[in-house]
Design brief:
By secondary structure, this protein is mainly α. It contains 5 helices and no strands.
Length: about 110
């Protein structure tokens, strides 16, 4: 019995990898075996990057809140603990946005917490 090779699927699989590696440097975009490794590594980096992005944004929000709160004579940690005591459920993203774009509303929150 002759050997059956599904060349259609194999070629499609290779084309998919080479399409993803378009624009990569030298043989990383042309040679399948090299491109496969490059695409795999790029996928890993993008997965890690999606996690790091969340961490970076939270860090930015905390920095912005801290800077805004210090103008009103508080520190970040005391502000957050007093928010919890006052049962104000605003997340850091919203607080940072208020501090940056609407200082009057942020000041009202700080005054309510004090």
């Amino acid at each position: 019995m002759p050997r059956s090779v599904n060349s259609v699927a194999s070629k499609a699989r290779r084309k998919k990898v080479l399409k993803k590696s378009k624009g990569y440097f030298l043989s990383r975009s042309n040679v399948y075996t090299v491109a496969k490794n490059a695409v795999e590594k790029a996928g890993l980096y993008s997965y890690i990057g999606r996690k790091l992005k969340k961490r970076d944004y939270r860090n930015l929000w905390i920095t912005r809140i801290n800077a805004a709160v210090r103008e009103h004579g508080l520190t970040y940690s005391r502000f957050i603990s007093k928010l919890a005591e006052a049962n104000i459920d605003l997340n850091r993203k919203v607080l940072a946005d208020l501090a940056l774009n609407n200082p009057a509303a942020f000041k009202a929150i700080v005054d309510k917490v004090k």
